[in-house]
Amino acid sequence: MPLHIIEQYSPADRRISKRMLYDRGRRLLELLDCSDQMFSLVLLDDHSMADFNRRYRNINRPTNVLSFPVTDDGDAFPGQPPELGDILISVDTALKEAVEAKTSLHFRLTELVIHGLLHLLGYDHERSEKEAQAMWDKEKDLMQQLCTSKRPFRRKTMPHLAINIDHVATIRQARGITQPDPVLAAGICELAGAEGIVVHLREDRRHIQDRDILLLRQTIKSKMNLEMAAVKEIIGIALDIKPDMITLVPEKRKELTTEGGLDVIKNEKKLAKTIARMKKASIPVSLFIDPDAAQIEAAADIGATFVELHTGRYCDATTEQEREKEFRLIEQSAELAFESGLRVNAGHGLDYLTTARIAALPTIEELSIGHAVISRAIFVGLDQAVREMMAIVRP
To answer: What stretches of 173-244 adopt beta strand conformation (E)?
Structure first.
């Protein structure tokens, strides 16, 4: 085990993923050609960190990180890899710095692990300006390599794949007949391995109809996720049929498909009231939002169980630079949502080329994918199209 994490403190209002920190620490050791060595990471509060500073540095306040390299006369344990030393991080200070920088706590903790690890390897920014610059350059280089690595971390648990079958109903409604049947399509998707079915009952009933919803509720064996606007009529239908969960989405009459996420801040009272009604009926609520820190905070404040992060801009990016920027925004937002106590899903525009990196993000539980799978089904059949996507989501 190259990294030993000792969690002596975790804020009551923030979740910390030890698995995520472990994976990043392991990858950093690889990047530094130190895979055969190990270090310990200790997470503390400000009070404990201030005590270490008083004892070892004559500083009467907490700092964000301290490093204690193993000395030559340090004890070695038989069968264990050589130990570099200990990195101590104040989670309180790291969280304040993350908020100021508008990043996730896990991102800031990763930066501090890099800083501490370089100290363990002999870098010291206090010896000279030249060494300080060298250390700073190395920190930036390591973070860049960590962020742009095309090799995803190995997740402990794989995300679920939920198939949106709206487009099956869209084809049916184009002719005003009974085929193709979205209820039959849902069954085929489940037999092919899908772990959820997503349907959007719009106010204008452009594709999914009320009868579809009733039949799907009776026949879906996995999980039914009802996408809907927070309007009186659809709320009433949801409370009657009691889906396994609902996802509140913005809805415009003239849009081809959902455009952008909910403005939770602007509609806070209305959404909070809907969430309260659903909770009373034991129906979990997800909010479909853009990857935005303020919207995530608002979603947590009004009691949502999930957020579904809008992946459209990432999927629609026309340059590698733009796509990388949007991916990092989704990654950071997923971490922020996880830290805030929300469960995290993602969807919109994902296809057979863009899904793998999103599926590898450790805080995302489920991906909602529709158009790409239904389009692929025209050429290879629905069963095969779902299986191909499952192989990407759960390799």
So the answer is: 196-200, 224-228
Instruction: Of 79-83, 88-92, 274-278, give the lowest mean pLDDT range.
Output: 79-83
Q: What is the pLDDT of residue 73?
A: 55
Instruction: Spell out a b/e string for 328-358, using b for 16 or more CB atoms within 10 Å of the CB, else e.
Output: ebbbbbbbbbbbbebbbbbbbbbebebbebb
Taking a C-beta distance cutoff of 8 angstroms, is the pair 314, 327 a contact? yes
Looking at 148, 180, 204, the residue that finishes a domain is 148
Half-sphere exposure of 287 (CA within 13 A, CB side): 29
The confidence score (pLDDT) of residue 260 equals 85
DSSP E strands, 183-231 = 196-200, 224-228
The residue written with tokens 């009186």 in the block is: 232
CATH of the domain at 187: 3.20.20.70
Q: Which two tokens stand for residue 174?
A: 């184009």
User: Is the domain of 47 the same as that of 100?
Assistant: yes
39: CATH: 3.40.390.30
Q: Is residue 69 very low, low, confident or very high in pLDDT (cuts 50, 70, 90)?
A: very high
Joined together, the tokens standing for residue 8 give 């002596």
Residue 110 has pLDDT above 70, yes or no: yes
Residue 213 shares a structural domain with residue 274: yes
Q: Which one, of 105, 112, 113, 91, lies nearest residue 40 by Cα? A: 113
Residue-wise pLDDT for 254-305, tens only, equals 655 667 899 999 999 999 999 999 999 999 999 999 999 999 999 999 999 9
Catalytic residue among 106, 326, 348, 366: 348
- Phi/psi for 353 (5° steps) reads -105, -30
203 is catalytic: no
Tokens of 133: 């610059």
Supply the range of the domain harboring residue 88. 3-148
Same domain for 82 and 119, yes or no, is: yes
> Are 205 and 78 in a shared domain?
no
Active site residue 348: yes
Catalytic residue among 200, 335, 339, 366: 200
pLDDT at res. 258: 60
Q: Which of 227, 251, 335, 366 is catalytic?
A: 227
The mean pLDDT value for 226-239 works out to 97
